[in-house]
């Protein structure tokens, strides 16, 4: 008897677990994890890389504070924007995950007491539009994050050229330079504005340059992962919105069918009553 009760209890727990797992929106869960990971990489690595970039400029390319004052303010503003982006997407990812749970429940419990509402469908449509806008915006962020990677790669590749020319006495390394002023991040009157030969090679060997370069690469990869996550979210939301639309039509059909069956039952009951009254 005890074994039978334990078996029934385990079976009931197993069925409950299967039912709970069946209501989990796995696609939304994967997209949320990918979105959180991408935003975390972009914000965290981007913030540290920007700080390292300012340090490199102040120490090697712009010794006068007034020359890079505007750039420092812009970088500081970008760091505050990074804080806002991290907070917003943490909240937005949770909201989209909750919407995925809601839509999954609405579709799976279509034949039960759960009813989708016009407000719920409107909210799903709004999330589709907002996610599309954010996806386009993050494409721009992804492209923008590739710019510092390109700049640091040019500096690093120039250092590699200097190293390769050290064995060739006919080509002095002092003639190979990198001028940061040509990128427009500091004015043309900034001093020294450029680094040549062994000085440039030493810059590439510093910890600030090494860390900033690789952190910008990781931040760019994080932006790309966020774009993929938003595209994934967009596909999920579009599919869920279509499911909700079909569910509302099915509900309307079931309501009409139930009303017609009730009217038919009323007609039959009245007919029986009239027949009984005649007899």
TrEMBL record:
<keyword id="KW-0812">Transmembrane</keyword>
<feature type="coiled-coil region">
    <location>
        <begin position="250"/>
        <end position="277"/>
    </location>
</feature>
<feature type="transmembrane region" description="Helical">
    <location>
        <begin position="80"/>
        <end position="103"/>
    </location>
</feature>
<dbReference type="GO" id="GO:0043209">
    <property type="term" value="C:myelin sheath"/>
</dbReference>
<dbReference type="GO" id="GO:0019911">
    <property type="term" value="F:structural constituent of myelin sheath"/>
</dbReference>
<protein>
    <submittedName>
        <fullName>Glycoprotein M6B</fullName>
    </submittedName>
</protein>
<comment type="similarity">
    <text>Belongs to the myelin proteolipid protein family.</text>
</comment>
<dbReference type="InterPro" id="IPR001614">
    <property type="entry name" value="Myelin_PLP"/>
</dbReference>
<keyword id="KW-0175">Coiled coil</keyword>
<feature type="transmembrane region" description="Helical">
    <location>
        <begin position="123"/>
        <end position="156"/>
    </location>
</feature>
<dbReference type="InterPro" id="IPR018237">
    <property type="entry name" value="Myelin_PLP_CS"/>
</dbReference>
<dbReference type="Pfam" id="PF01275">
    <property type="entry name" value="Myelin_PLP"/>
</dbReference>
<dbReference type="GO" id="GO:0061564">
    <property type="term" value="P:axon development"/>
</dbReference>
<dbReference type="GO" id="GO:0045121">
    <property type="term" value="C:membrane raft"/>
</dbReference>
<keyword id="KW-1133">Transmembrane helix</keyword>
<feature type="transmembrane region" description="Helical">
    <location>
        <begin position="26"/>
        <end position="50"/>
    </location>
</feature>
<keyword id="KW-0732">Signal</keyword>
<dbReference type="GO" id="GO:0005886">
    <property type="term" value="C:plasma membrane"/>
</dbReference>
<feature type="signal peptide">
    <location>
        <begin position="1"/>
        <end position="16"/>
    </location>
</feature>
<dbReference type="GO" id="GO:0022010">
    <property type="term" value="P:central nervous system myelination"/>
</dbReference>
<feature type="transmembrane region" description="Helical">
    <location>
        <begin position="215"/>
        <end position="237"/>
    </location>
</feature>
<dbReference type="GO" id="GO:0051612">
    <property type="term" value="P:negative regulation of serotonin uptake"/>
</dbReference>
<keyword id="KW-0472">Membrane</keyword>
């Amino acid at each position: 008897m005890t074994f039978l009760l334990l078996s029934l209890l385990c079976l009931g727990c197993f069925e409950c677990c299967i039912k709970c797992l069946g209501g989990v929106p796995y696609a939304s869960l994967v997209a949320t994890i990918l979105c959180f990971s991408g935003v975390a990489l972009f914000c965290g690595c981007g913030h540290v890389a920007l700080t390292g970039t300012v340090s490199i400029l102040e120490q090697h390319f712009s010794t006068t504070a007034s020359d890079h004052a505007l750039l420092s303010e812009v970088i500081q503003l970008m760091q505050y924007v990074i804080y806002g982006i991290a907070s917003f997407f943490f909240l937005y990812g949770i909201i989209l995950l909750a919407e995925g749970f809601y839509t999954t429940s609405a579709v799976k419990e279509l034949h039960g007491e759960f009813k989708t509402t016009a407000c719920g469908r409107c909210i799903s449509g709004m999330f589709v539009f907002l996610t599309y806008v954010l996806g386009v915006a993050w494409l721009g962020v992804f492209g923008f994050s590739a710019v510092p990677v390109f700049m640091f790669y040019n500096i690093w590749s120039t250092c590699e050229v200097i190293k390769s020319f050290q064995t060739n006495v006919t080509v002095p390394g002092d003639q190979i330079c990198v001028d940061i002023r040509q990128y427009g991040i500091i004015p043309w009157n900034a001093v020294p504005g450029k680094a040549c030969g062994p000085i440039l090679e030493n810059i590439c060997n510093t910890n600030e340059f090494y860390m900033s370069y690789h952190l910008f690469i990781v931040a760019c990869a994080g932006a790309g992962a966020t774009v993929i996550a938003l595209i994934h979210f967009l596909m999920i939301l579009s599919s869920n919105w279509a499911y909700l639309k079909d569910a509302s039509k099915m509900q309307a059909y079931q309501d009409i069918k139930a009303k017609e069956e009730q009217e038919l039952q009323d007609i039959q009951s009245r007919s029986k009553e009239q027949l009984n009254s005649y007899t």
